[in-house]
C-alpha cells in the first residue's frame, strides 16, 4: 500500500470518511505521511481538507506541525474551511512556550486568506514585542507574508518594522532587514538610527541575514556618504576636458567614520564559507571602498572559483564586470583564470572574457600564447569565442595588432569551418579599422579564395575585397573573374557577395569589369534562388545607366561605397556596473522586478548626525521624558539607549578579554561564552552550564540600601492601546497573555557623587538590568557623568578598588575628556558575589580622587529567566522548608490589581513574570547573577487587599532581604 | 525570495515539487527544458534562466537538477548557495542524494524543505538544528516507526534555534569522546608538455568529525600557519582570535563538518609530485599512430603515489587502440574516445608505462593536436604544502578526548597539456 499512489489515495479517503476524529495519533500520523507525498508530487489532495483541519487542535506537536504543512498549502483554495483552524493558532500565540508561539505565528501568517488580515496584523504586532527574540524573528518573517497578501497594510507594517529594526539581537536583525527590503526599501530614513548597530551586529548574524543586510547597507551608504574616489574620478574626467578647468578647488576627502565602520566590519566576512556572503562583501567593497582598498576582495573571489560550477558562473560574471573598471585588482591572479579542458563551455567563455579584460601590454604575450592553445580545443563554441577574444585584444592593444592579425590569417587555413569563419569575421572587423595599412592582408585573403571552401568565409572575403577594392585595384577584378567562373557552383550566401563585389567594382572600375558584371548579373538572373534573382534585378537597375533609370542611380556610388563604421569590439560587460553587483539584474543585464537602483553618490554628504543615537537620560532631560511619555510599545527608550552604549563598549572590551583568555587559558576550567555568545542578548532559556560556583559569601543582613539619595523613576511603561483592543476582540483566555512578561522599564538612579563634593562633577548610577556582555556573572551598572563645572574634566577612570573577597569589577574604559556642560554614560560590570556588600573604589579625574561606593539593592542581584507554569511549580516544590519565606501583607490602595502588583514587584527586583492560570496569583522568576541560584516569587491576592507573598530561594539571606524589599514595595 | 522548488531528473521528469508561497504551475519548467535542450552538455545549462514572469535558478548535483523559481530580485548566489546547502543536507541525511533516495524518503525531504525555508527565506540550515527537528532515517528507526506508527519528527521542542551557538545541539553525550581531523589537500596544476608548470595551486580543507560530550571549546594551532594564504571558516571559528594569533578557536558542531578551507598560493613554490612523459605520433597518410606514456614520482617526500588514474580524450579520428600497460588495466571507449588507465600504486623501481598503437579512421587527416592527459592520484599521510597541526587542546570539559589527525593529498584538476608549443605565433614583444 505504501508504494503506490492509489494506495495513498485510498488511505486518505478512509480518513475523509471518518465520522469522528481519528482515535489515535498513530492514525493521524499515518494519514499525514500519506498526504504529504501527494503534495510533494504535485497531486491535488485538497478534498481531504476538512478531515485534516480537524486535527489542527491535536495536542501532539508532531501531528500539529504536519497539519500545518497541509493547511498552508490548501488554505488559499478552501478559505472557509481554513478559517476553522484560526482559533487554534490564536491560542497557540499565547502559549507560554516561545517555540509554540513562534510556530503558531509562522503558520498563521502563511495562511493566505484575506479575511484574517486583521488577526494577522494583531498577531504580528504582539509578537514584535514578545520577550523571546525567536518569536520576534518569526514576526519579522511574517511581515512580508502579510504585505504580499494585503499591500494596504503597508503603513502599519512599517511601524512594526521600525520597531523591530531597533531590536538588539542578532537573531532578529537579518529577518527584519529582509522584511524592510520587501516592504519599504525606499524608507532609508528608518536605517539611520540603527546603522551603527547593524554594522556591529553583522558578524554574528546568521549567514543569510548577512547577505541581505550587506546589500541593503551598500545602498544606504551610497545615499549617505561621499564618493571616496571622488578626486580620482574627477581627475579622469578633467583629463578628457581641457586644461582650463583643471584648477578646481579640490576639497580634501575625509571619510565619514560610519563609512569606515561599515568597511571595517564587513571585511572579516570575506572569510565566510558562504559564497553569497563573500559576494555581498565583494560588491560592497567594489561600490563603496576607496580604490586602494578594493583589492582585498580579489583573493576571496578567486577562492570562490573553486566552488561548484554554478557559483563559478555567477562569480565570473561579476569578476568580468569588475575587471573592466579595476583591472589591476585581478592581475596578480591571472593564472587562476586559465581555462581547463574540463570546464563547462559557459565557464570557459566567461574566463575568456576575464582574461581579455585583464590583457595589457605586459601580459599580452602570455595571454596570447594561452589563447593559441585554446584554439585547438574540441569545443567549437569555445574556439569561436577565443577568436573573438583575440580580436578584442588586438583592438585594445595596438602593439600586438599585427601579431594577432597574422595569427588569425594563419587560422584561415584551419580545417574547421567555424574557426575559419570566425577568423574571417574578426579579421574583417580588424581591417575595417585601418584598411590602408593592410592591403597586403587583403591581397593574402584574396588569394585564399582559391583554397577556402567555407561559404561564410568566402563571403566575408568577397565583401572585404569589394569594400576595399581601391586598395587592391589589380587583384579585385581578377577575383571577380575567378568567381564569375565558379558562380553557378557557389553557395547562395557567396553568390550574393559576388553580385555585391561586381556592383562595387562596376562603380569604381567599370572599364575592366563592365563585361564581367554583366555576365554575373545574367547568371544571377536565371538562378534558382529568388533572393539572388531579386538582388540581381535590383542591382542592375541601380548601377547600369539606362534611359529609364530613376533618380536613385545617381546615388548608386554613395549607396554602395558609403563609409561603414568600424564595428566596436568591446566587452559585453562594459558599464554593467550601474547594476548593483551580485544582483540578479546585473547577471541578466536587465532590471528584474523589485530591483532597487543603486543610487549615485551624493554631491554633498547629508547630515551625519542622523545616525547618532542620542543619550538623553541626563538629569535635565528627565522631566521632558516623563512629560512626553506617549504610549510606547515594548521596551522603553531608556533601555534601548542603554544597550547601544554597552554594545560599543563590549566590542572594545572583547579584545581585551580575548587577550586575557589566552594568558589564563590554563587556569580556565570552563569557557562557555565566546565572543559571539557574549555579544548576543538572549536573556532567557539558555541555561548556563556554568559549573564554577562561588561559595564565599560575606553577607551582612543589616546592610540595607539606605543611601538612596535621589530616586528618579523614568517613564513608566504604558500599556499599548492595541493590547486592550485585543482583549475586546478575544475574551481573555485562562493563560496569561505575553504582554505581562515584558520586563519593566523602570530604572531607579542613585547618586554616586554629588555635584558639590565632586566640584562640579556629578555622577549617578543605575542598574541597567541588561546582561553585562563581557562577563555574564556581573551586574551591569550604568554610570552617568555630568560635568556642570566650567572647565572640562579629563581622564575619568576607576582606581584602587577595595573589594570584599570574591568580588570583581570590570572597569569602564577611561573617558579621556568630558567637556563642560556635557553628559556621558558608561557601563561597568560588578560581580557582587550575590551579596549586598558595597563595592568601594576611587573615581579619579586628572586632578582629584573621590572615594565612592556602589551598593546594590538585593533586587538587582538577579536576572530574569523565562519559565513555564509547570517548571515554576516543579522548582518551587524543590525549594520548600528553610528555603521558603512567606509573609502576609495588606496591599496599598493604589496597588490593588494585577497590573500594579506586577509593576511594583518587577521594579523592586529584576525578575520576569511567569505565566499563571489564575488571575489571583502573580508569579515571578529569576536567578542570582553570580551563582545562578533560582529566585521564585509569588504574590497571591485575596479579598480586601490582603495578600500573601512567598519567596523561594536557595540563598536564605537573599530570600529574606527580597521579602523585605517586595513587602515594602507593595505596601508603600 | 525562493518561491518554489522543482526537482528534475536526468530524463526530464519533475519528481518533486515544493512551494513556499502560492503555487507556481509546473509548466514554468518548460523554459528550463528548452534551455536544457539547447545546451550540448548537462553542465552547460545556464544557472539563471529568465522567463516572462519568473526566473529559474538551477544547480546540477548528482544528475538531478534543483530548479528554484523566484519572482523578484534576489542575489543569484544566495539561491545557488542555498540549493547546494539543500543537497548537502540530503546527503547528510540519506548518505547519497539520488532520485531513489529522495523518493524513498519523500516525507523527510518534505519536512526538511519546510523547515529550511520560511516564505522563501532560509530559516534553519544548520545540520545540527535540523537533526534536532527531524531525525535522520535509519533502518532501525524505520522498522520501529512502521510498527509503532511514530514518525521521524523530533519529540522534543528544538531549542537549538534559540541557542547562541546555533550550530551545536545541546545535551550531547558520548561514551567515547573523540575528535578527528582530516587535512585533505588537492593540487590543481596545468603542466606543459615539456614538464614545466604553467599553473599550480594547492587547495586544502580540514574536515572534522567531532563527537564530544557537552560544550567543549577547542583550539587548534598549526606549526606553520603562514602557509595559509586565504582561508574560509565554518561560522563557529572565532575570527578575531585567528587574526591576532593564527589559532583556530571554536565550539565545534556535533558530528561531521568542514572546519576550514584554505588556499596555498601559487607564489609559494609547489612541488609537483608526479611527472608524465607521453609521446603520441600520427604519421601522415598512414592509418596507424603510436602511443607512448610513462609516468613516475617526483618530489613526494618519500610517500608513495596511490590510486593513480590516467584519463585522456583522444582525437576523434582514433578508431581503436591496441595498447600494452606494464601494470594496471586500461580501457578505451570507441564511442566517447575516452582512454582511461587505472595504474594503481606506483613502484619507483619499476615505472609504469603504456605503449602501443592506435588505428585511425581511414582517410581522416592527421589530428593536429596532442590530447590532454588528466591525472588523478593520492598520497597518504602527507599534506603537499607541508601544513602541520601543532596541537589540539580542549577547554570547558573535564574528560580527556581521543584526538586524531590525518593528512592526505589528492590531485584535483591536474592535467598535462599535450599541445605543440613550437607553433606559437611570432610575438614581437
UniProtKB/TrEMBL annotation, chain A:
Stated name of the protein: AP-3 complex subunit beta
Cellular component GO terms, alphabetical: AP-3 adaptor complex; clathrin-coated vesicle membrane; Golgi apparatus
Membrane topology per record: Peripheral membrane protein
Record-annotated AP-3 complex subunit beta C-terminal domain positions: 693-837
PANTHER family per UniProt: ADAPTOR COMPLEX SUBUNIT BETA FAMILY MEMBER
Compartment(s) of residence: Cytoplasmic vesicle, Clathrin-coated vesicle membrane; Golgi apparatus
SMART domains reported for this sequence: AP3B1_C
Organism: Oncorhynchus kisutch
InterPro entries: AP3_beta, AP3B1/2_C, AP3B_C, AP_beta, ARM-like, ARM-type_fold, Clathrin/coatomer_adapt-like_N
Entry's family note: Belongs to the adaptor complexes large subunit family.
Compositional bias per record (Acidic residues), positions renumbered to this chain: 638-664
Residue ranges, compositional bias (Basic and acidic residues): 672-695
Function: Subunit of non-clathrin- and clathrin-associated adaptor protein complex 3 (AP-3) that plays a role in protein sorting in the late-Golgi/trans-Golgi network (TGN) and/or endosomes. The AP complexes mediate both the recruitment of clathrin to membranes and the recognition of sorting signals within the cytosolic tails of transmembrane cargo molecules. AP-3 appears to be involved in the sorting of a subset of transmembrane proteins targeted to lysosomes and lysosome-related organelles.
Region described as Disordered: spans on this chain: 624-696
One BP annotation, GO: intracellular protein transport
Keywords: Cytoplasmic vesicle, Golgi apparatus, Membrane, Phosphoprotein, Protein transport, Transport
Automatic annotation (TrEMBL), chain B:
Gene that produces this protein: AP3M2
GO cellular component: clathrin adaptor complex; cytoplasmic vesicle membrane; Golgi apparatus
Family recorded in the similarity comment: Belongs to the adaptor complexes medium subunit family.
PROSITE patterns per record: CLAT_ADAPTOR_M_1, CLAT_ADAPTOR_M_2, MHD
Species annotation: Oncorhynchus kisutch
GO biological process: intracellular protein transport; vesicle-mediated transport
Compartment(s) where it occurs, according to its Swiss-Prot or TrEMBL record: Golgi apparatus; Cytoplasmic vesicle membrane
Keywords: Cytoplasmic vesicle, Golgi apparatus, Membrane, Protein transport, Transport
Topology term for the membrane: Peripheral membrane protein
Primary localization class, coarse: Golgi
Protein name: AP-3 complex subunit mu-2
UniProt domain MHD: residue ranges: 176-417
